[in-house]
Amino acid sequence: MEKLVLPLILLLIFSIFFVEAVAIVPKFVELQCKRTRYPNLCASSLAAHLNPKSQDPQEIAQVALKVSIVKAVYTKNYLRIVSKELEQKKAKEYQVVKDCLDQMSDSVSQLTNSFKELQRMKSVEYSEGDFAWCQSNVQTWLSTVLTDSYICMDGFDGYPMSGKMMAMIKARVLNVAQVTSNTLALFNGYAAWHRANSNAGSGGYGKKEP
Hints:
disulfide bond
């Protein structure tokens, strides 16, 4: 399964984040990012990768999820490099970094599952029961990523690692937690919009805010 997932993740990395350009934040994106815990980060991370004319709540949630995947993969790869260096040095910090690597590896899997589930939710054949089941899955997996991230950071308490290494690890893991928190908020907004419009028909996200 992981061998099948890896090409997808690499594709996302090169198609979305090969270059992070500064972009003007569309008003619609700015408004939706206000529902998140980190609105400035939300707006800056999404603006360059969304159609500026998009009014599609699922597209916003999907792009936000891709952002989380890319950040998690980068962090996982960084932790793998650091853990190998510490293992070779037989450093006492090796185990805590290895534990964090395991947490981030799990996060990549949870995010990838969420992405695939969100893709399934596009199907017009889905009943409301199917949608609710998928919604619950995505919410659970994204919440697990947040838990993994904070467990990772808490694990470094009491370890006198070099300042630069500690700061780099914590900054990267915290970034994963922040963008994933935003993703969860945007996904919840999409799910609320879907429930509000599934019976009456969708008049466009811009016409009826969740």
